[in-house]
From TrEMBL:
Domain C-type lectin: 150-264
Keyword Ribosomal protein applies: no
Xref: InterPro entries: C-type_lectin-like (IPR001304), C-type_lectin-like/link_sf (IPR016186), CLEC12A/B (IPR042916), CTDL_fold (IPR016187), Ly49_N (IPR013600), NKR-like_CTLD (IPR033992)
GO biological process: melanocyte proliferation; natural killer cell inhibitory signaling pathway; negative regulation of natural killer cell mediated cytotoxicity; negative regulation of receptor signaling pathway via STAT
Membrane topology listed for this record: Single-pass type II membrane protein
Gene: CLEC12B
Originating organism: Cebus imitator
Protein name as annotated: C-type lectin domain family 12 member B
Amino acid sequence: MSEEVTYATLTFQDSAGARNNRDGNNLRKRAHPAPSPMWRHTALGLLTLCLMLLIGLVTLGIMFLQISNEINSGSEILSQLQKTVDQQQDNLSQQLGNSNNLSTKEEFLKSHISSLLNRLEQMAVKLCQELIVHTSDHRCNPCPKMWQWYQNSCYYFTTNEEKTWTNSRKDCIDKNSTLVKIDSLEEKDFLMSQPLLRFSFFWLGLSWNSSGRSWFWEDGSVPSPSLFSTKELDQINGSKRCAYFQKGNIHISRCSAEIFWICEKTAVPVKIEDLD
């Protein structure tokens, strides 16, 4: 009887201890619940995002350093190029300065040579004139035979026949010349110095242009008022009027009148080899 009670008591105590153990485990489970799968995914996503941001920051840092290095390198290259450009500009300025100096020297030499050539030409002309006056044994002939030489022109005085202004002009053209044009006081004095012109009349290359209502030389230029007085130019009636030269003055006549004439053409330049 006593053994059965003891058994029952032990059994009860063991059953009560088991319940206590189960109750303790349940309380611990309720106090520390197990993590849910959704929270794990969220934590993993945040961790991945942090890693990506970290990688991005590192990448941006590296790119920034590279760009900084490239900028610094580009600045150095640009500075070097600027120095090179400045040096080239300085060199160009020096070259231009040297070129200007050379141009100035060249112009001076050209001017000096031109002056020497002019003096040589003047001396050759004077020597040729002396040869013509004092000797017949020479080769200096700026003008054809029977023509008179003065400065840069040759003059042919026709005194063996008389012609109208138009026919006189034609004769000069046949001689490869024109009726004389007086365009300087020196030339006027030269013509006045000729003995025949003191007493005879000679056609000039000056005529009245009815369409332009003015006086013109054959080359189209107008007579200089300082050389001739033209007050009497309107005293001759008719559409065709021509001028002649006598005793250093200009006179007007009808072009149909027949008088002497003077032809003029350019003289041949004096050659140094013809002065030997």
